[in-house]
Design goal:
The chain is α/β, with parallel strands linked by helices. It is built from 11 helices and 27 strands.
C-alpha cells in the first residue's frame, strides 16, 4: 500500500488522522478510528512518558523534575479539521528561522522524517514539555561547520565541530499573539558559564566556563561544549529560560532555499564579490536566490554599509522574513512542496529530545502557526563596540538598551502593536503577587549587588531600614555572579514576605523566584539587584517599549 492510500478505506483523508493526544500534548497519527492512540513508528520510549508539570515563567522545572501528567490550557480544545492541512512547522537554518508546512503524513513520511532528525541529550537543560502554558523560548543555532560539498570554501576547513555562528532567540508570547526573533551577534563578548556535556558512552563531562569575557560563538563546539552549553549561556545573558534548541548547518540554507523554489531578495546597490569570500554577483533591485547562491548571500559582507557582522545580521533577518512569506503564501497550498521542504529541513536538523520527533514538531507548529506575520518582530540584541579594544572587532551589551529588551521579554511585553487580550494578572507568574502580605518588620532579606550601580546594596539596605521599617535586612555585598534582572528568591513559607518586599520595591512578577522547600523561621530571603535597578526607592519594572531597530516578518525587502 502506498503512502497516499493509507487510511483511505473509509474515505478519511490522512491529513485528518493527525489528532491531539491530551495526555502527552502531541499530535499523533491515528489510522484506525478513535480507539487508543497508536505508537508512532520509531518513537523513543521516553516520548510516552507524561510531560513535566506546567511551569511558571522564570521558575520552570528542568528535565530532572518529577514527571506529572498535564493538559495545558491551550491544548485542551479539539483541533479543527479545517486547520490541519495548513499546519505550520517552525524550524531553523543557518539563517535562523524557517517555516515548514506539514500535513498528510502517512507512515512512510513519518518514518522518513523521523529518521532524518538528529537529537542531542543535553541533560537537565531545557524542557521535556513541547509547549507549556505561558511564554516559550526557542534557540535557533546556525552551526558554521564546513562539512558538505562546497562548504570548505567558506572558512576554516579544520573546523569539524562548528561554532554558534548565527544564533536567534525566538520568544513566543504566552497568548501566542506575537513573537520576537532576536539575533545574538557571534562576536558578542560575554562570560560563558560552566556546563555539562553528555558523552557517547553515557557519561557526563564537566566543561569549565570562560575565565574572561569570550566571544559568544565559542559557547558551542569549543572544549566539547554542546547546544546545552549555548542554551545556558543565553540564559545567563538574558535572564530567560530557554525551552528547546534547533540547530542547522550550511547545507540547510542550500536545500531549503531550493525546496521552496528560491527566496526573493532586494538590493539597494549591486553586490559583486567575485574575488572575495562569497563569490556573489547580484544586480540592484530584486533577485531570487537558491542553493549555493542563497548561502553566499547570507555569508556575504562585501558591499554592506560597514561590511560587519551586524550588517550581515540585518540582511539575514530580511532573508528570513522573505522565506517565511514565501512558505506561507506559496508552499502551504502544495503538498508536494511541503513534503520536500520538511524532508530538506529535517535532514539538516538537530534538536533536543524534548522536540525530537515529527509529531512533537507538529505539536509545536500547531501553536506557532497561529501568529500573524505582522506580529513577528525581528531585531538584534542591542550592543555597542567593545571599549576594551583600540580598534573594536567585537561588541559588548548595550548597558541601557539590552536590559530593557530583556525586561520586555521576561515580562512578555509585545514589541508589536498587536492588541492583546485583557489578562488582569491571570497568568501563573502574576499570581505570585496575589495573596496576604507580611508586616514590613517581619521581612527578612539579604541584599546582594548583582549588576546594579556601585553601592546599590548598601543604599537599598539603608532605605529599607530607615524608610520602610525592614529592620531584619543585611548587606551581603557583591553577588557570586551578575544577573540580567533584579530577582527575589524565597521559600514557599516566605511568600507573604516576598509580596510585601515586592510592593515596597515595585518588583514585577517576573522578579519573584519561589523555591520548593520551606525555610527556617530565621532564614532570610535573597534579593539580588540587577542592571535594571536604578536606586533605592525607585520602582523596578519592565519598560513597555525600547528604542531599538526592528522589522516585521510581513515587510518586503523590495517595496513598491
Amino acid at each position: 500500500m502506498d503512502a497516499q492510500s493509507r487510511g483511505r478505506a473509509d474515505g478519511t483523508d490522512p491529513a485528518d488522522q493527525w489528532v491531539l493526544n491530551p495526555r502527552t500534548g502531541d499530535y499523533e497519527l491515528r489510522l484506525n478510528g478513535p480507539a487508543e492512540p497508536p505508537t508512532a513508528p520509531r518513537e523513543p520510549a521516553t516520548d510516552s512518558a507524561a510531560p513535566a508539570p506546567a511551569r511558571v515563567p522564570g521558575q520552570r522545572g528542568r528535565r530532572t523534575a518529577p514527571a506529572e501528567e498535564e493538559t495545558p490550557g491551550h491544548h485542551k480544545r479539539r483541533p479543527r479539521r479545517s486547520g490541519r492541512r495548513r499546519a505550520l512547522m517552525w524550524t531553523g537554518g543557518v539563517l535562523g528561522l524557517v517555516l515548514v508546512g506539514g500535513s498528510a503524513f502517512a507512515y512512510y513520511w513519518y518514518d522518513r522524517l523521523y529518521g532524518n532528525i538528529n537529537t542531542v541529550d543535553i541533560g537537565d537543560v531545557g524542557s521535556d514539555t513541547v509547549l507549556a502554558d505561558g511564554p516559550v523560548n526557542l534557540l535557533i543555532i546556525g552551526n558554521d561547520v564546513r562539512t558538505g560539498e562546497g562548504n570548505e570554501d567558506y572558512g576554516n576547513r579544520t573546523n569539524v565541530t562548528g561554532h554558534a555562528d548565527t544564533t536567534l532567540l525566538f520568544h513566543v508570547a504566552g497568548d501566542r499573539s506575537n513573537a520576537t526573533v532576536m539575533s545574538i551577534p557571534r562576536d558578542l563578548m560575554i562570560d560563558i558559564p560552566d556546563c555539562e556535556s553528555r558523552q557517547s558512552d553515557g557519561s557526563t563531562k564537566e566543561i569549565p566556563g570562560s575565565t574572561t569575557p569570550t566571544r559568544f560563538n565559542e559557547s558551542y563546539g569549543v572544549g566539547g561544549r554542546d547546544p546545552g552549553c549555548t542554551m545556558l549561556t543565553v540564559e545567563e545573558v538574558t535572564g530567560l529560560e530557554v525551552d528547546h534548541f534547533m540547530m542547522f548547518d550550511f547545507n540547510a540554507v542550500k536545500t531549503l532555499s531550493t525546496a521552496v523554489g528560491g527566496v526573493e531578495v532586494c538590493l539597494e546597490k549591486p553586490i559583486k564579490d567575485l574575488d572575495g569570500g562569497s563569490g556573489l554577483d547580484l544586480p540592484i533591485g530584486e533577485s531570487t536566490v537558491e542553493g549555493e547562491e542563497a548561502l553566499s548571500f547570507l555569508r556575504n559582507r562585501h558591499g554592506l554599509k560597514n561590511e560587519s557582522d551586524l550588517d550581515r545580521i540585518e540582511m539575514q533577518q530580511k532573508f528570513v522574513a522573505s522565506m517565511i512569506r514565501q512558505l506561507k503564501e506559496d508552499t502551504l497550498d502544495s503538498p508536494s512542496k511541503m513534503l520536500d521542504v520538511a524532508d530538506a529541513a529535517t535532514k539538516s536538523l538537530t534538536v533536543d529530545k524534548g522536540i525530537g520527533s515529527p509529531s512533537k514538531l507538529l505539536t509545536l507548529a500547531k501553536e506557532l502557526g497561529r501568529i500573524d506575520l505582522k506580529n513577528i518582530t525581528l531585531m538584534t540584541l542591542p550592543v555597542r563596540d567593545n571599549p576594551a579594544e583600540p580598534t573594536p572587532v567585537t561588541v559588548v551589551l548595550d548597558p541601557v538598551k539590552a536590559p530593557q529588551v530583556f525586561g520586555m521579554l521576561q515580562e512578555d511585553v509585545s514589541f508589536t502593536e498587536v492588541k492583546k487580550k485583557e489578562k488582569d494578572a491571570k497568568d501563573e507568574q502574576a499570581k505570585l503577587l496575589e495573596g496576604p502580605r507580611a508586616e514590613a518588620s517581619a521581612v527578612r532579606v539579604d541584599v546582594f549587588n548583582g549588576g546594579g550601580p556601585q553601592g546599590a546594596a548598601q543604599d537599598t539596605l539603608t532605605w529599607l531600614q530607615t524608610v520602610e521599617d525592614v529592620a531584619r535586612s543585611s548587606n551581603k555585598g557583591n553577588a557570586p555572579k551578575t544577573v540580567a534582572k533584579t530577582r527575589l528568591e524565597y521559600a514557599p513559607n516566605q511568600a507573604d514576605q516576598a509580596r510585601k518586599l515586592a510592593d515596597l520595591m515595585g518588583l514585577p512578577a517576573s522578579a519573584l523566584k519561589p523555591g520548593t522547600a520551606d525555610a527556617a523561621d530565621t532564614e532570610p530571603m535573597t534579593l539580588t539587584l540587577g542592571p535594571d535597578f536604578q536606586k533605592a526607592g525607585v520602582p523596578v519594572a519592565a519598560p513597555k517599549k525600547v528604542d531599538v531597530t526592528q522589522s516585521r516578518a510581513d515587510e518586503k525587502m523590495c517595496r513598491a
